[in-house]
Amino acid sequence: EREGGKKQKMGQKQSREKLLYQHVVNGNVGGIRTLSTQGASLEWKDKGGRTPLIVASKNSRLYDVARTLIELGANVNAFSKGHQRGTPLHYAAKAGLQETVALLLSHGANPFVKNSKHETPLDVARKNERHAVVREIEGRICYFAGQMREVFGPGFSDASAPQFSSRVIWVVIVPRSSSNPPRRPRLEFVIYPTPQDAEPRKILCLRKCKIKGPNFQQPSSALIIFDKRNKTRYKFTSVTEGDKQQLRRLYNACKGISQVTQALTQVSSEPVAPPLKLPEMASASLYTSSSPCRLSPWMTTRSNICMKSPRLHNNHCSTAESWITPNQSPPHMGSHEEPNIGSPVVQTPERFSAPLSPAPSAPPLTYDDLSSPIPGTQSEASALVVMEDDKLGSSNLCIICWEASVEGACVPCGHMPGCMSCLKEVKVKNGVCPVCRSDIDQVIKLYGV
């Protein structure tokens, strides 16, 4: 009798989960909620190894079902074991469901998980030419995204060209894996013909490249990347002649300093999900906009920021060109604010509402010899520089406003990220340390001895 009762209960439980799965297929949100409250598991898998959330994530009609399942606690990183192994994000990316992709990313879906074919969701979206999904995922993880001008001709990019010419391209710098400090992410320099293209024209692994930084004292500055694998040089300048800020942002991103300033445009006319609210201030590298941005919980603080800024820092310049080995350049933990400079604005969804023209997102690198102009050119030996871990992040300026000196510390973590006024504002608004994201109990002022 006991065994029979036990089997009956097991059968009831299994049928309840199958019924929930059927409600998912039929889009019955009410039935899903009812069965969930009765104890039905949200992780039951069908013969193909798909969970209810995976089924909902591959169908545009089931967006509300996917949102309901996530609200009820479904695993957004569940991995199917069928012939098309992958997470819900892989399935949504393949189907080109931008809304569902945004929903999953906003609730912690990891965009770096690889399926059975060793493809990330971004790879899947590119392969299936889902440009809206490509822009969505890149917008969550990129260090830089914007238009640049590529110079090609003899010795650059296309050696067969008889003379030098240029073309406007869309450049995105993205990591291949999540950032786990102190390990530096593997960054890729991705070149698209236009923002409407899903498939890259060229992908450069920055660890396999040498980067020659721009000389901002020259009127026509350029960033040169030498791909050591195929012995090819690439030359990039700003779209607008003489605009050094966009070039500076690209250069900093190549060194692992996030420069995301909402330059991404959403070229698709597909509707998007309503944006989620985030604290007005976060920490580390940049995601600047006049409207809140949405960030995935798995991302480290270096990639997360939503801020506004009172002024630009555009009067700094670099003294000389320098070779930087990307895999030796430490990440910079800092944030900077910037204003709306009245640039032409492209109509975009709220989370990607931003001007296309370049805007500074981090203060330029400072050098000890900037006190006076340096005439002439520097020797070739001085042009070779390898950035060590103690070079970046050594500024004593507040990493929030980049104006006042560091004078406050967060308790109990002990980090000293900024001035007292900024730290007090951070404590009031979101109450977490801008460096480590731990809770702030109090902010104390430090005095030099």
From TrEMBL:
List, alphabetically, the SUPFAM superfamilies matched. Ankyrin repeat, RING/U-box
The entry lists its GO molecular-function terms as: zinc ion binding
- ANK repeats by residue range: 48-81, 84-116
The segment annotated Disordered runs over: 328-373
Any idea where the RING-type domain is?
398-437
Taxonomic superkingdom: Eukaryota
Question: What protein does this entry describe?
Answer: RING-type domain-containing protein
